[in-house]
Design brief:
The chain is α/β, with parallel strands linked by helices and 233 residues long. Helices cover 37% and strands 21% of the residues. The protein contains eight helices and twelve strands.
Length: 233
């Protein structure tokens, strides 16, 4: 059973989400303001599997909730669910740590489908269901298990989000090539290549913390100035 935190200040929406997510077999908690959500996310003794996060909240907005979680090293998958539908808000939401972004009003089937994708830890979307294609990769002191959304490092086991896995897979599949940021934006986040955002750089910085012995001097995910990134085994 997955534990999901719904952060929503409109009671009828929160209750509806709880009802439908519990019908899917999940354990659901509700936080009605941003500060309560931030405090719940900071509770390491009760880890969450997913957060459904509104942005317009009392006490603390959703951008800050996501930013604080990521700054504290909490990379639980976050589905942003909001009425803020501008491209700028979507880009900011992803940059602050959101793994997916869905605008209100929304179709329930679509939301539940996105929840399932973010909770899917047993395989990544590009793995052949018949078993063809690598499910694990090893380089340096790191082993990545794409089918389990996990990474073994000298500092311990790291749980990866859907976007982290997709970004790492995209780089590994082009090993040795300079991959443009625009290509990664389109493939991993579904954004137009020319979108003005640093979300790729933010996620690369996150991956480097897991992978690199010294993230300030990376050996495996290296920058290509003015272009993008290159993966070196």
């Amino acid at each position: 059973m997955s534990r999901i935190l719904v952060v929503e200040d409109e009671a009828h929406i929160a209750d509806g989400l709880r009802y439908n997510l519990e019908a899917e077999g999940h354990d659901v908690e509700i936080a009605s303001d941003g500060r309560a959500a931030a405090e719940r996310l900071a509770d390491a003794q009760r880890p969450l599997d997913l957060v459904v996060l509104d942005l317009m909240l009392p006490e603390m907005n959703g951008f800050e909730v996501a930013r604080r979680a990521r700054a504290a090293g909490n990379y639980v998958p976050i589905l942003i669910l909001t009425a803020k539908d501008s491209a700028e808000d979507m880009v900011r939401g992803l940059e602050e740590g959101g793994d997916d972004y869905l605008t209100k009003p929304f179709q329930l089937d679509e939301l539940l489908a996105r929840v399932r994708v973010l909770l899917r830890r047993r395989r990544w979307d590009g793995v052949d269901p018949d078993g063809e294609g690598p499910r694990s990769e090893q380089f340096g002191d790191v082993t990545v298990h794409f089918d389990r959304f996990e990474m073994e490092t000298p500092r311990g086991l790291v749980a990866l989000t859907t976007r982290e896995v997709a970004l790492l897979r995209a780089l590994i599949d082009r090993e040795g090539q300079a991959v443009p940021r625009g290509d990664l934006l389109e493939e991993v986040w579904g954004l137009k290549p020319g979108t003005r955002t640093r979300v790729v750089d933010s996620f690369v910085a996150r991956l480097r913390k897991y992978i690199e012995t010294d993230p300030s001097h990376p050996r495996h995910i290296v920058s290509v100035r003015g272009h993008g990134y290159r993966f070196i085994r």
